[in-house]
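Field reference: sequence -> structure
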Amino acid sequence: MTELLASPLFIAFAVTTAAGLATVIGGLIVIFSKTPDPRLLAFGLSFAGGAMVYVSLTEVLGKSQEDLISAHGESDGFFYATLWFLAGVLIVATIDRLLPNPHDKLTINEEAIQEKSNDYIKKVGLLTAFAITAHNFPEGLATFFIMLDSPDVGISLALAIALHNIPEGVSIAIPVYFATNSKSLAILACLISGLAEPLGAVLGYLILEPYLSPSVFGAVFGLIAGVMVFLAVDELVPAAKHYAKGHETVYGLVFGMIVMALSLVAFQH
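Structure field:
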């Protein structure tokens, strides 16, 4: 039992699950606080965005290049890493196009919500949960594979994703809570969406495990880097800007990068 708990696979899965379940924190915010501080929300979103961009471009993409260069040579390896990075951007852009991530529903406006019928609110809640769940699959895959390869980088990335998942939990819980007046259903909706991350990790590992090699790892890391950068630029930064009343977005971005950089330096010593 001790060996299982200490195995890299179990640790990677546990960290991925913990990051995904941060959505539940967002649900608790909705239940116990009617008006989350928008400035703090803006700072948290942009902090997560800055951390994700930094680790993706300095560490994850670098690991993709390293693995692919070892497998295909310097010129081809660099080319393939770039290609997989762009593929990651394209994949998540396509998902985002088909299922937009509804960050605009983070604001809690009880009066406006009550003007709508319960059926409409339930529909909004289901669509919101479905859209965010779809976005959580690649995030879970990212956290899991980075944890397997580099736990120090994986922990930092997991923290950034957890911060990003908190407002997503808010956006899921709002319509569910106000439509059903059920705290348990709101939390359950957040829980199900958060579990999409470990589920994405397990499915991705089961599919790729028989083929794991430097080429496959390089391709996966390239995809992950593209996905993370797109999520940060397309979702986190605009959402943070929406709730900012001053320079919270810029400060959060810079501070997120600084904290990520210092944490990576600390892990090297």
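Note: The radius of gyration is 19 Å.
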